[in-house]
Structure formats: structure tokens, C-alpha cells
Design goal:
By secondary structure, the protein is mainly α. The chain is 73% helix and 1% strand. The chain has 15 helices and 2 strands.
């Protein structure tokens, strides 16, 4: 199957599974509607696709891994809802649509994010895998999403606004804020497959490389991207006085970093037969325009 067809098939599988999750949400006022609005608003679904494809690479069945993939995407969506709030980045658009708080108000947006975060662990716990795998998956996602991961990175990001950060400080922020959840996607896929520790570590190293390349590409697109294609305003990093890879090193140097990180990511998986899709995914993310 061609890369684009395999990606589309994985995305469709994820969309169907997420829609089924939304149907099971309790309907208290507009809570279910607000949760579904953000969760089903599109997006690349790179993280859940990564869960499924790493699982497949190491010989696992994709169907039992779907709850892991959906749980990860629910946590990611909660983070976007909260990230867009006026007390955080104060964004009006996400994926070309009004942000959750613009449609449902700040209070319900906060609760919709809270609902997705907690429901994610209910979904994860229902995976038809061994108790050990479910336990490891729960610990993996919790660590990546919490103060040792994404939440900690968001705090560092807020503290860094208006300051001239150096390269290592920016790396520290992005490794936690963005990288931890992408690494978790790879680890969850490996856990669902019952892989060896060496296989899981290789997938995690691949994910760390593409996660950093992904964020650097985000910084480039915030300067050079097309607002309509991106579905969100460009220039917001500069407006918020955030230190970015582009501000520190310039666009040309960042393009070189993206290419070298992508190559390093590909090299992590080349020893494993059947890694062609994941290698192509790394290259596709390096040149994405949205």
C-alpha cells in the first residue's frame, strides 16, 4: 500500500474509533457536544497513527491497540483546548475553526478539557490487552501528560515568555511540551505489541527525533506558513515574545536541523523489516505545510 493510502486508512480508523468514544460520553448540558467538537475537529492524527504503526511494526494487532491510540489523542485534544484559553495562548482558531472556548465559553471549555483528560484513562483501561500491558500503558501516558512531561513543558513555556532563552532551554521546553507525547505514542504502540525493551527504546528514540523536528518545523511555519492552510494565525510566537528555534538560529539553519533529525530518526528503525511507512512518515512531517 502506498504511504498516502496507508496514512489515510489509519486516520480513518482513528476517526471511527474516536467517534465511537464520543457516543459513549454522558450528555450533561453541552459537555458532550463541546468534548466532541474539539475531539472530532480533524487534525493530522499523527500521534494515534504512530501508536498503531509502531504496534504493527513489532508484530502486534492494531485493533487491541486502538484504545491506547484514542486515549492518547484525547489527552492531546484536552491540551489543545486548555492551550487555547485566554489565560494561556489566547487563540481564536484551531484547525481552521473557532476554538472551544470561543464556541462554548471558557468555563465549559475547561470542563471539556478536564472531561477528555479523565475519560482518556477510562478508555485506555478498557483495552483488550494483558493487565501488565494496560498498567504499563497507563503509567506511560500519565507520565508523558503530567508534570514530568507536557504540563511541565507548558509551565516552562509560560515562564519563558518575554525572555531570551538559549538553545538548550528551548530544547528542554519542547522536549517536555511536545516531545513527551510523541515519544509516548511510540512507546504505547510498542507496549501494545508486546515488544522487547530494545524495540521499544528504538521506537522511542525515533519518536524523540521526529518530535523535535516537528516542533522546529512548527516554528518555521509560524514565520513562513500560510494562515489559511495552517488553520491558525501565523506570527503568534513573535507576538507573544516566545523564544523559538527560528528566532535563535534562523530559518535556513532550522531547515538543516529538521533534515538531520529526520535522517537520525529513520536510522533508528531501518534495522526493522516493515519500517518503510514510519520512515516515510518522518520525511513527510519534515516537509509539511500545515
Amino acid at each position: 500500500m502506498e504511504f498516502s493510502q496507508q496514512l489515510a486508512a489509519g486516520q480513518a480508523r482513528i476517526e471511527e474509533a474516536l467517534a465511537a468514544c464520543v457516543q459513549r460520553f454522558p450528555a450533561h448540558g453541552q459537555l458532550k457536544e463541546a468534548m466532541g467538537y474539539s475531539l472530532l475537529s480533524g487534525g493530522k492524527r499523527i500521534r494515534p497513527v504512530l501508536v498503531l504503526e509502531v504496534c504493527r511494526l513489532f508484530g502486534g494487532e492494531m485493533e487491541p491497540a486502538l484504545p491506547f491510540a484514542c486515549a492518547l489523542e484525547m489527552v492531546h485534544t484536552y491540551s489543545l483546548i486548555h492551550d487555547d484559553l485566554p489565560c494561556m495562548d489566547d487563540d481564536d482558531l484551531r484547525r481552521g475553526k473557532p476554538t472551544c472556548h470561543k464556541v462554548y465559553g471558557e468555563a465549559l471549555a475547561v470542563l471539556a478539557g478536564d472531561g477528555l483528560l479523565t475519560e482518556a484513562f477510562a478508555v485506555l483501561s478498557g483495552a483488550e490487552l494483558s493487565p501488565e500491558q494496560v498498567c504499563r500503558g497507563t503509567a506511560c501516558l500519565a507520565k508523558a501528560a503530567g508534570p514530568a512531561g507536557m504540563v511541565g513543558g507548558q509551565v516552562l513555556d509560560l515562564l519563558g515568555e518575554g525572555k531570551a532563552l538559549d538553545y538548550q532551554e528551548i530544547i528542554a521546553i519542547e522536549s517536555l511540551k511536545t516531545g513527551c507525547m510523541i515519544e509516548a505514542a511510540a512507546r504505547l504502540g510498542a507496549i501494545a505489541a508486546g515488544s522487547t525493551q530494545a524495540q521499544e527504546d528504538a521506537a522511542a528514540a525515533y519518536a524523540r527525533k521526529i518530535g523535535l523536528a516537528f516542533q522546529i518545523r512548527d516554528d518555521v511555519l509560524d514565520v513562513m506558513g500560510d494562515e489559511v492552510e495552517l488553520g491558525k494565525p501565523i506570527g503568534s510566537d513573535q507576538e507573544k515574545e516566545k523564544s523559538t528555534f527560528v528566532a535563535l538560529k534562523g530559518v535556513e539553519a532550522c531547515q538543516g536541523l529538521i533534515q538531520s533529525l529526520t535522517q537520525e530518526a529513520v536510522e533508528q528503525l531501518q534495522p526493522y523489516p516493515g519500517s518503510e511507512f514510519l520512515c516515510s512518515l518522518a520525511r513527510q512531517l519534515a516537509s509539511r505545510t500545515k
